[in-house]
Each structure stands twice: as structure tokens, then as C-alpha cells.
Amino acid sequence: MDVAIVGGGFSGTISALELCQKGLSVALIEAGEIGSGGSGRNHGQCIPVFGYLDAETLPPAGFALLRDSGQIVFEQIADLGIECDAVQGGWLNAAHNAAGLERAKAAHAKYAALGKAGPFLGPDEVTGLSGAPGYLGGWVHKDGGHLNPLAYVRGLARAAQTAGVAVHTGTPMTGLCKDRSGRWIVETPEGEISARKVGLTTNAYGTAVVPARMRRSLVPLSSYAVVSAPLGAEQKDAVLPSGVTFSDTRRDPMFFRVDTSGRIVTGGLVELRRGRKSGPTVEQATHRLARRYPVLEGLQWEYHWTGQIGVSAKQRPAIFELDDGLWGLLGYCGRGVPTTAALGRAFAETLHDPKAGAALWPQDPPARIPLGSVIGAVVQNLRGPTNKARDRFNL
Ligand SMILES: Cc1cc2nc3c(=O)[nH]c(=O)nc-3n(C[C@H](O)[C@H](O)[C@H](O)COP(=O)(O)OP(=O)(O)OC[C@H]3O[C@@H](n4cnc5c(N)ncnc54)[C@H](O)[C@@H]3O)c2cc1C
Q1: Looking at the structure, do residues 98 and 189 belong to the same domain, yes or no?
Q2: Which of 101, 183, 236, 239 is most buried by its number of CB atoms within 10 A?
Q3: pTM of the predicted model, to two decimals?
């Protein structure tokens, strides 16, 4: 093989497909099923807004790739014919108070200048799009939207396989070493893969065999999702009638989408009570939603699950070389749907030709984070209450 990719999420499937399309022979191995990690567990919101979308620090082609990442997601879905309930209805960011309004206006100015947003919206326009009264204003990122993430990642894997990638699920990497000729040997219970280069895309799910340099570059945080029963006709008319995907500007944001079967999908960081057990989680979710949408009083919930997100020290994704021909990609900080569309391409380019890859994304090793799981546990338990207090006191 020319390249072995380890990890069958968005990052691994997108980069394997891209490498194959460049004419390389590629194997993709996944310890569990395609989408077992964050890619099959997320909320399916495509929000192409990034603090690190910065022309000063990104190369011009990488800036353009990240800027257009939302558009790339939906184009790729259409081009590959992936059936994943994709709706590019825009992302609505609604300001809940004066400080939130200032933040929303600043974000809007940035994305309007890039041609990604129309005029800033007044309270009535936000109500028209969201169905919710009481917001002070907001804006829509046109390239945003939502999708079924598990169907999306499975579709990507199918497309990669059809293109010629050898996809092996239920195949964990159990060892990694070099042979005498300098080729990488990826060991699995089924046998070995010999490859010129290896790309690690295990993000927050890396098992003990994944080099410590990868695993210790992330703070793992647990996030949860809850999904309601399908809404009735009256509820559907009242909640996000325009089909946007939604977040407000709270530090502890209310964010959700209504999928094509009429279910509300929402969630957040797992806290002491919220996210850990279904009872209190859905009670809080209903209460929060019903304050804005009285029609949702008594909403029934059918699914609840959790997953891991990986936060890097600089809070931006990193591509870096761990050893000669061994590369890692990680650190989406909970926003991987649009981001992997850009970074997956940049990673494939880097594995193909590191110089060409550097023109898309800087090859900076992320800072090491000692005791990442301890930091994660502290953040996990303090972040939610701190953010709620900041919201309460308008900080
Ligand atoms: C609950 C939740 C909600 C989220 N909501 C959103 C959202 O709405 N929008 C958004 O943009 N982002 C969201 N995210 C973030 C997004 O899901 C991730 O950023 C993204 O899925 C990362 O993709 P990935 O391919 O890099 O990693 P993953 O999808 O985590 O894939 C890593 C894979 O590596 C495999 N693996 C690990 N070790 C080995 C090994 N030794 N051998 C073989 N395979 C191995 C794992 O099994 C796993 O499948 C959410 C995340 C979570 C957990």
C-alpha cells in the first residue's frame, strides 16, 4: 500500500477517498464500525464558523478551503449521492442579550465580508426563521445546515470503497513499527499492512497503541446528544419553520436542529447531572425548549447517547509529522462536520506531498497536554455551571 489510514470517521474516510482519487493505493482500518467515534455520534450541525479562520495565520488556499468548508460538505454529499438527510438551510445565530448581540454582530461582519451572510437580522426576522420570540437579532451563515452524521460517514466510507480504498472494519491497529526497508507496518489481529506512509485520524478515540504524542495532544471531553420523538404538525410549524440549524449566543448555548423526520436533535457537554442520565437530561432539555416554544411542553424523547470530543491546546485542528512518513490529524474541538471537509483534504495532500500540503494547512505539532484526562474531568464539571452563571449575570 502507499498509505494506511487508521480511524474510520470523517477525517479518515475523507482523506482516504482523496488519496485514492490522487491515484494512490490506500487501506483504511477502523477498530469498530465506520462512525463508531465522534463522526457517528454528533448532532449533525454544520456550522462553518471558526475562531481560527484567519488570513494572517492560514495559507491563502487553506483559508479559502476552511471558509468554504460548509459548501464543500453539501457539494460532496450531492456529488457522491450520499443519502444522509442533508439540508443546507443555513445556520442561524440568535442573540439572547446585549453582550450576545455584540458578539453576533462581530461574527456577522466577518462572514458577511466573506460573502457568507446577508444583512444582519432584526428581532422579528429571527422570530420568523426560528419561530422563537425574544431574541434581539441575529444572522444566518448561508453555507450551514444539518445532516444525519452516521449516514454521512457511512456514505463517505462507501464512496471511498467504491473508488478503490481497501476498507477494513472491526480491525484495530494493535501495533505500529518500521521494517528494515523503512516501510511502516500496521499490525492488526487479521494481519499486517505494509505502507509507505501512515495517517492517524483517531482524534479523541485513540487506543493505547496510538502514539502517546497524539493522545497527549488533546483534552478529551464527553458530549451528549438527545433526540425527541417526531414532532406533531402544530409543533413542526412552530419550531424552526424555515429549516435552519440553530444556536443562540449563550455561553451555555441552546442549540438544536429538526431533522427530516421531524425530531429535535440537541445536546451539550456532559455535566454532573445533565447528559449523564436520561431522566434529568431530557427534563432540562424540554424545560429549556418549552420556555421559547410553549408548544413543546411535554415533549417525548426517544434517544440519548454520549461521545468524546478532542480539544487541542490552541483550540484548532493540527496536522503534524510524528515520525518520517507517520502523520497525525486531530483536534476539532467539537466542530468536525465542516472542518473535516477541509482538513481531510489538507491531510490527504500532506500525505501525498508534504510541501503541497503545507500550502493548505500549517504543519504545526500541537502543544503536549500533560494530564489531559484530569483537565478534561475538571473542565467537564466546572464549565457548565460557570457558563450558566455567566449567562445569568450577563457576563
Ligand atoms: C456528542 C457529540 C456531538 C457533536 N456535535 C457536532 C456537531 O453538531 N457539529 C460538528 O461539526 N461537530 C460535532 N461534534 C464533533 C465531531 O463529531 C468530531 O469533531 C468529528 O466526528 C471527528 O471526526 P474524526 O474522524 O477526526 O474522529 P472520529 O469520528 O472520532 O473517528 C476516530 C476513529 O478512530 C478509531 N480508532 C481509534 N483507535 C483506533 C485503532 N487503534 N485502530 C483503528 N481505529 C481506531 C475509532 O474507533 C473512531 O471510529 C460532536 C461530537 C460529539 C461527540
Answers
A1: no
A2: 239
A3: 0.96
